[in-house]
Amino acid sequence: MNQRHVVVIGNGMVGARFAEEVARRDPAGERVHLTVLGAEEEPAYNRVLLPGVVSGAYTPEDIYLPCPEQPSISVRTGTAVQAVDAESCDLTLDDGTRMGYDELVLATGARASFPPVTGVAAKDGTPAPGVTALRDMADCHRVQALVRPGAPAVVLGGGVLGLEAARALAERGVRVSVVEAAPWLMRRQIDQAAAAILAERYRALGVAVHSWRVAARWIPGTGLELDDGRILAGDALLVTAGARANTELAKDAGIAVEHGVLVDDTLTTSHPRVHAIGDCAQHTGGGAGLVQPGWEQAAVLADLLTGTAPEARYTGARPITRLKAEGIDLTSLGETEADDTAETVTIADPYGGRYAKLSVRAERVAGAVLLGFPDAASAIAQLFDTRAAVPADRLALLQGRPQPEADDVQAAAQADPLICRCNAVTRNQIEAAWLDGARTRDTIAAQTRATTGCGSCIRDVNTLLSGWSAAAPADVS
Amino acid sequence: MTTTHCPYCALQCAMHLEPGPGGALAARPADFPTNRGGLCRKGWTSAEMLGVVDRLRRPLLRKDREDDFAEVDWDTALDYVADRLTDLRAAHGPEAVSVFGSGGLTNEKSYLLGKFARLALGTSQIDYNGRFCMSSAAAASTRAFGLDRGMPFPLTDLGEAEVVLLAGANPAETMPPMMAHLAAPRLIVVDPRCSATARQALAGGGMHLAPRPGTDLALALGLLHTARTANLLDTGYIAQRTTGFAQAWRAAAAWWPEQTEHVTGVPAHQVRAAAHMLGKAKGAYVLTGRGTEQHAKGTDSVSAWINLALGLGLPGRVGSGYGCITGQGNGQGGREHGQKADQLPGYRRIDDPAAREHIARVWGVEADTLPGPGRSAFELLDALGTEGGPSAMLLFGSNPVVSAPDAGRVRDRLADLDLLVVADFVLSESAAMADVVFPVAQWAEEGGTMTNLEGRVLRRRAAAAPPAGVRTDLEVLHGLATRLGQPAQRFPTDPDAVLAELRAASAGAPADYSGITPERLEAGEELHWPVTEGQAPTPRLFLDGFAHPDGRARFIPVQYRPAAETPDADYPLIATTGRLMGHYQSGAQTRRIPELAQAEPEAYLEIHPDTAARNGLTEGDWAQLTSRRGTTTARVRLRPDARRDTVFLPFHYAGAQTANNLTNPVLDPTSRMPEFKVSAIRVEPATTAQQGGHL
After folding, report:
1. What pLDDT is stored for residue A401 in this prediction?
2. Which of A86, A176, A179, B320 has the most crowded CB, counting CB atoms within 10 A?
3. Strand intervals (E) in B64-117
4. Is residue A386 within 8 angstroms of chain B, CB to CB?
């Protein structure tokens, strides 16, 4: 038994994915013995889909994540870590026991940050009656207990999570107001013009949007008072105004921390045996707040700690944000307000509720905002993700996929088009058979082989036959 | 006039053969449930192969590879091969001799080849080119349903469906008459290319989903995820007829539509629309082809498609289901009767003591004399001539120097053999490397049985005698086996005598052929296996239960993983390979038929105009493609509907145009299928010298 013991603190999306990645690289458990410690009693679940649990698209069990079933990996839920001793490489658990490790992975995630609004939270940070975040399953159960169809609710924070939650609540028949302190919705991901059209889309779905409005006071049983004195009715206040990395354990252990735990390209912290991934980590290339970079980090760290790819490095995120809101297709990526060194194409269609902006620098996608352009969004996201060159015709790219197959168009224009592709039979050959006396599809088939392949030309042959029959004055034979 | 079936693909279209105006046999379509009077251009021209100018009519032998072949008589050739095999076995043991078979061989040949390897040669080293075709689907079907019959229902059932999803299948190009069964249903075609089938899907109100090559597993997970959230799953069926849904769902839970889009490039709204189209259909089928199977994760990819079908309650019911579109003419029968490294006849496992006892009894030997499992196809080819690998190979019905992955490496391996013996009817590229070539009969010159893509056993009938000097494969095996000391009656040359033995060998096995007699075949009975002696055939499997002991189908939890190679700065594009209508497999046959050769005379490359322009290429240029394994050349065809990150090239061409020079031989852990469909490559204009290389 000379496997190294790797301990992961945090059984969230990134911690659980790390366990999967290790399992895939070390299926026999020959390299690594892994322990995952999760503070929540619940098994690991897919936090990204919590708004879907709110809308009823998923049950809580639906969003549980896979857990590798191999003896070398153990997952302990309901186990919190109280302290990390990085010098002696061991942990103190909340039951007072200690656990040693060879390598430690911090995947402690982040927690909701509550803005300093009167009445929202008690002094110790406990949310006031009617107030909840939407970070974990317990929050989700609170939301479900607080909201009812037809009753009002307020979402404080018009970022991605807030807008997804607002849409989910609206789907359940809740009358929703969204309050955003910044000048426009999704301030960090989209530009103002897109946000204006997005706000209209939300209004059309029955969601009231109040941008550039600061909340002044939460009045339980009444609603949220804004800085202009207006009161938005709400039985519930969903706070989705950002998150703070859970860095306390690292900080107390003397590990370098800014707003997250600082890591290098090997996802190692200031202590060489301690690593951090996901929302708790801070890498110069960014990436916190989105799940994809966290998963990429999990894969890189699994490469390194299992020794399957010692050259693996995390070099930063290519952030792509997709809003998951029924009926709204919004993608944003890269720089959404690129400077003059980029060439930018913009299409604004407020009437149609659509907006597209594509910025290109040195033939690569620098950034894009795509609202209501689902096919282009997919194509541009792939170009961005793979750093591939952007086609010369950018407008065509925004308009979506090219029309299928120029062949058929060209073929139709030819003097003697191909009718039966399977047997390479042209119109003239079929006509020759007709002139030779073939008057039915069967006799045409016997003479030319047309229609005997996939059969998709049967209609064309029949049309030709009926056309010639109608044109012929009488059977000349 | 003789009525038989086409020599090429697994659709096994029925055809009439009779002398044409010049006296040579000519083919025309016959009415039959699978082809309904249709034929593609390969079938129409198939009889031309019988009289092809460079047909081999005398055995060829050379004692030194530097020399040219000499024509010799059969006794000389057979004696030489038997002597060499005997010497090699004496010097290095029986494992020094290997056999490579084909999904193009009849059931009788497949069976006798396996018997020949295990008894006459005593080697475990036998596998076949079907490993490169349907092995991933076979492995996935077996673990889901307990049994693998490509389509566990008659092909004609498809026409009644409302929606058919085709994952990595392009029948409009590869088996056109099959499309008659797909004219009524709406089609969802999953293919990185806008293929002929994809265009027909769009024209008929269906959909084309174009995932990045190597990501269809993620797409299948995303469709299951989306179907679940849209309440489209058949929960009653899942509860009563399956096990393992909870685990499979957890694997799919991470694939919400937007995440699926991120990895596959298929827009989330298309994922939703496809899930709805499939999930709401009255009567739906999920079919897989090589596009989703020929990956290092092919088995898991097919499992993901089967999970989707199971979630929707499709398999094991009349009017819906899952099926694999088997490719080679006898790809189905060829994988059942013992030319596979891990298998004995009847789809029995070679490591199953009861199976070994049964087969040993039929063969009249002791079970412990039967060899165990051997190397899979690529591993076998890759071991040839190496330390610990075989030093001789007998090759039947296959042309691996064109059709195997990393073809350059396979050529090197074959060149290192002490003895290469090939049975073929022309001097294929592999035969041209041999020490001895046996000229063998073609499909219209001998009888036998074939098992088509729906598991129906068909009668192949002789329409003419083989040319003078040509023998059948069964006669070759008989001639070698007797020279190696086997009793003559153990290797019959009459196909019906072999069939009688195969019936006994397969009795009681998963693929039970015991009730398949020449009389029932001649009577035109629709004999879908299993057919137990004296019993009715089984057109539809699993209606009463699946073939696992508990009668339930199994969801297999499968996870997405990337292709073995992802594009990088040196190899920035993905190459994917495939088939053309006018050619078959390595092209050894179809490149010799003037009409087919003229229509598609040379390798080409489908590439997006932007990608071509960036690499200095325009329509009609010769391009050189390079992967980490080798290079090939192909002529540029611009396709505005192509993905910008992917080029396509057909693999039917040889020499400097061998697409498989590029392909990656990394293998699926379960099926041992190579990763034909994803190779990282770069493309550039070919030099004048390279252009000359194609001639």
Report:
1. 57
2. A176
3. 70-71, 97-101
4. yes
